[in-house]
Amino acid sequence: MKPKKRHILRKILLVLLLIIVAFVVYYNVRTHVALPDITDKQALEQQVMQTGENTHVIGHNNWLRKSASGLWEMHLHGSPFDIGVYNGRLTQELIRKQELAFVEQIKQIVPSENYLKFLKYFIGWFNRDIDEYIPQEYLDEIYGISFSCSHEFDYISPTYERILNYHAAHDIGHALKDLALVGCTSFAVNMNDTTDNLLVGRNFDFYINDDFAENKIIVFVEPDSGYRFVYITWASMMGVVSGMNEKGLTVTINAAKSDIPTKAAMPISILAREILQYASNFDEAIAIAKKRQIFVSESLLIGSASDNAALIIEKSPTKMGLFPVPGDHLVCANHFQSETFTDDISNIENIAESASFYRQQRCEQLIMETDSSFTPADAAFILRNPYGLDDRNIGIGNEKAMAQMISHHSVIFEPEKLIVRVSTHPWQLGKYVAYDLNKIFQMTTVPEDGAFLNDTAITVPEDPFMQTTTFDNFMQYRKWKAVIKAYIKEKKQINNEDNFFSDFVKLNPDYYYAYQLSGDYFSATGQYEKAKNYYLMALTKELETTQNERELRERITEMEKVTTH
């Protein structure tokens, strides 16, 4: 190569190198999240003490205990940073378990290491200004929690940024509906009634994996500003998805169809937390929601003891609507109902194509079938119902049913009595343990180890469905489903496969997915005629979405093509 050409090539390479360096510097500067400036960090000097087999204490009257029901119970008070520190220290081991379960599921969804690295940098860029949309007190609290996070996950990002981003990950999971993480339903009954107490019920169907849902925490918070409140959560999550405050105001969030966001704003769980902490009625909740910008579409069902009713705040990144009803009940699924979104294309498509509208109709039907005034047991019956419209068998676990058997938690609120009932394992089928906030917020000392914090006299018993053959078959179906997926991934054949799959679909005979998964196995192992037959059988069942039908028909067409060549 001539000297002149080498000189030009060196210049080009130098320019390219400078561009790359400049981009890296710019990326790091733009994605860097500044740590909160905390002047008083004395809380970090406090040590956790174990005062009983299942009870741990830090500071004054901050404690965590595991109840006989299997639920974790935690009480926190103080400044935002102190609450965060105490929360993190008490749940340190639970945080690690939770993060391990979350990261493991991400690796299952995205097995490529290179793509995971890309995802890491993409999320860093996507969330580059997220701290600008979150009130300082909540940044301080998250910062306090981050001191107890494991450094084994620092390859994702530093602890503070990681926990901050996890709150946004919940919203991204809502936006990426294809991940099938969400499909929540909530309702309110006995509204505008002077003789019966308002009841709010909700299934929080946010599914990562079984390990993620294992350690549910009921957190009682006495902040140094705002109202005292309770919320149901998991370790490291200080945002609210289901909660009630001392004024009898409840907040539950439900995903709606969103366009893929281009940039983060306030995570919806942080908005729900702010409403729970600072609102005592509809007007105050609406005022808080109006002033905040979010980046996915969500419904917030607000129950209010002072208003003796419930309403839905429907909020997208660009507009907000309200859906109150004058009647005695209100149902919220995963689509918008207010006039604001009547002509919204995404919402119209969502109603037509998803399971949301069907599930709302089913909830309405169950409410109307209740003869007398509603009791917590009636609410539990609705939340646990696994059937379709008119009690049709649509398969256990179908997204169109109220009970999809994936709930992280299920809750029943009595706002006027300040009583919250929380489901125990599994999903919404275990007993609903009752907590009376009137009593709990009067406590000034750590409860004795083994003492009942919950009110056993008003517990809703476990669902009798758990004692049926149908339930046993469903649990076996879940186990076999995991085995089949592993064989499909490896493209390996199961011994005596014809009998195996004949038995498999009998475990959940009305659920389309049992047949679809069977078809996927035979397709993966090159048995296309058998695959087609299972896909055809799946089409005869109640499908969850129009996309399910499209995918099945595409697979049938594909099987027909390969069998005719």
Description of the molecule:
With 565 residues, this protein is α+β, with helices and mostly antiparallel strands. The chain folds into 2 domains: 49-467, Penicillin V Acylase, Chain A, CATH 3.60.60; 469-563, Alpha Horseshoe (Serine Threonine Protein Phosphatase 5, Tetratricopeptide repeat), CATH 1.25.40. Helices cover 41% and strands 16% of the residues. The chain has 17 helices and 17 strands. The chain has an 11-stranded mixed β-sheet with strand order 1-2-3-4-7-8-9-10-11-12-13. Strands 14-5-6-15-16-17 form a 6-stranded antiparallel β-sheet. Strand 3 (62-66) and strand 4 form a beta hairpin. Helix 13 (469-490) packs parallel to helix 15. It starts with a helix and ends with a helix.
User: What is the count of distinct domains?
Assistant: 2
Regarding CATH, which class of the largest domain? Alpha Beta
CATH fold call of the largest domain: Penicillin V Acylase, Chain A
Q: Span between N and C termini?
A: 54 Å
What is the total tally of β strands? 17
Number of helices: 17
Helix- and strand-based class?
alpha+beta
In terms of DSSP E residues, the strand content is: 15-25%
The CATH superfamily of the largest domain is known as Penicillin V Acylase, Chain A
Q: Report Rg.
A: 25 Å
